[in-house]
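Researcher: Good morning. I'm working through a list of sequences from a screen, and I'd like to move beyond sequence-only analysis. For each chain I'm collecting a predicted structure so we can compare shapes side by side. This is the next one on the list. No need for commentary yet; just the structure.
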Amino acid sequence: MLREGQATAIQRADYQAPAWWIDTVDLTFDLDPAKTRVLNKMRIRRNADVPAQALRLDGDELNLARVMVNGAGTSFKMDGSQLVLENLPEGNEPVELEIFTTCTPDKNTKLMGLYVSEGTFFTQCESEGFRRITYFLDRPDVMAMYTVTLRANKDAFPVLLSNGNLVDSGDLEDGRHFAKWVDPHKKPSYLFALVAGKLVAREQKIKSRAGKDHLLQVFVRPGDLEKTEHAMNSLMHSVAWDEARFGLSLDLDRFMIVATSDFNMGAMENKGLNIFNTKYVLASQSTATDVDFANVESVVGHEYFHNWTGNRITCRDWFQLSLKEGLTVFRDQEFSMDMAGTPSARAVKRIEDVRVLRTVQFPEDAGPMAHPVRPDSYIEINNFYTVTIYEKGAEVVRMQHNLVGREGFAKGMKLYFARHDGQAVTCDDFVQAMADANPASPLAQHLEQFKRWYSQAGTPTVKAVAQYDAAAQTYTLTLSQSCAATAGQVEKQPFVIPVEMGLLGQDGSALPLQLQGDSASTLSKTLVLTQAEQTWVFSNVAQSPVPSLLRGFSAPVVLQYDFNDAELLTQLAHDSDSFNRWEAGQRLAVRYALQAIQSDAPVAANVLPAAFVHALRDVLRHPTLDAAYKDLVLALPSEAYMAEQLDVVDPQRIHAVRESMRLQLAQSLQADWAWALETYGDTGAYRPDPVSSGKRALAGSALLMLCLAAQVSGDTVWHGKAYQRFKDAGNMTDRFNALSALVHSGAELAKPALERFHTLFKNEPLVIDKWFALQAGTCDRGGNVLPAVKQLMKHPDFSLKNPNRARSLIFSYCSANPGAFHRADAAGYVFWSERVLELDAINPQVASRLARGMDRWSKLAQPYRTAAREAIARVAAKPDLSNDVREIVTRALGND
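Model: Good morning. Structure tokens for this chain:
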């Protein structure tokens, strides 16, 4: 329950169109860090479709100096943070409204609205930051044409940027200058952006397929320019891919990216002026890992693709957030898979995406913050930028893609833009366009039922039961579905669930699939489960098969089927579907882990049976599998994923079991790891392509395993080899993999290696973030991690005000290191509560994300459960909490 005086929930059902429209916005900024002046001239008009009402404009931490209507002063009143104008002219004629305000960007630690970072002005307006710049109808369905004039001291702020096209610039008196920008496209206020500071740019001119010239620019601070080549290449690839795949061309004369180290998010798709966290722009061989290079490509693609799916067509209201985010995540996933090139590399990308979904989103679906892809209510919209909105939303789009096919999906996208370009619309509008463009598809046939994916929270469970009749040579498969109750949704109606499947022979060969009554057969088929239970019968099945179900993870569900070990080992060795081949190994590892976790006996040294270890050896030594794929198959499920399979969670028991499994693989496959390091350890001249990256990843895993085995045996030769590899590495991936191997194995050489690493990269903030994260995320050895984290908070390079730095140290410990965080003495929980409160006073968005780390506290065994609840209650008891954090902890306690 909310305490008296707190913000109340906003309901999707209460949506009403605005009483006023804003057609044009003319903004003039006199930029000064201590006091920026903002003159806002708007042309507004009444919405004739709703009853006449006063104009209520949103504002936050603004100093109001003047309000004028049609050139004359006017009366107004303040209602909380809103500016209310009740005496505006009647009728439908446009009204000229002028508002003059000031704000203090250098004191804006929330990093929302207009703020200063290291002497440069930036903005972040999504979702409700524009109201911190000027009074406005700060909602996504109010779309206007913007003209922006920026004025500032030329020496201090030589670069002045805003959305759209630069139409004028020049010098002013007193050492100042100006730039005037006009955006040719209507946009909501959340897509507004400005940047002003000392920046340099990498530029690239391109020509579209239509023959139009465009200028691409990536702006960074002086000294970082050499790290922008990959970002520029990624942007060019994104532009070309969107034209080729969906026929969507760049619609601006120029497209700009600007990087800042102080940013709450990964990046922001402001129309034509994307503002990025430096983490997703800066990359060089010496400072960025292969993962960093891949993330830069993915995020650059994501934000560019928003230019159409999010900007040209935007959300009617924030409940429709997945309209743009789920769709655009799907698009950036497809982009990354297409850029990967080979089928194996595509499979690796798909597996990586599913791992995120299952380790983060599935727990969210089962926790106190469970919500549908299209939520029904929220208190603070910033709390709903979640993996459900993004990653599960992308899976809902992917299911539509699977149900209508690749060509059908392209047709649906074309119809979607033909209907809604330039509009603010809903999730229903998108799926309706997909169905209308493909009237014969299963999506169109089950349209209303499919929409339940947008309205029902929770992860469905699909149970499969099979029966083979040897005499009739038939195989009968029965699928049933269910979904657990979530807050506010006790009963769930059946979903539309595409289940792609195949059958394997006992030798692993693919068996033909022929549904009873059909004349044709295939090797893979998509069954569409729409009822609580359905049965399919396959004919001419010559032998008892091994089912390969939910291929490619064709729906975001939990699959229950009583596989025996032999069936899973067959899949692990032979399944032609790369996802299910990987999944078979994961199922076996989880099965053995849970047996050990739930046992009353001490954790054994050999948790894994010999047959499974032998199967993993075969994968590692396989002559044709890609290194990246091998690395995924050999990686054990995370402690967090194991915890989600249990009703009661003892974090230390899980940690001990997984560590035992890891040490067993390290020792049992020691010769194989040495072979892998020798085989894949030298990739030649550095390239961040999928094949080379996969080899480095597998070599890094092999080195870690060799160092772990060495630590147990007492033979530290491999520690010395790892330290030498650390010193000699020609790229950050190899260097950091070697450093990680030393740190995670507890080698004595870890300390000098960490010191050397800091000395080498003390002037590279993103690299030092890795340095902090590695130490906070190491395995808990004797309870020493928390004291080390506390000590690192005192390090001269640590700053709680910088989101990247706070995440690198505090989040790495509290949210990503369960073995060290969940302490029997509750010290980890006390630390978490102190940091949430400390961050909340500075930056509520970052604080609320840290608060999410305790979502699943109610599953904990004692004594952890009581101690965790007490820590959450301490946070909730603070009277002046932000809405961001209060919503999180209130819902968490409500799960008790």
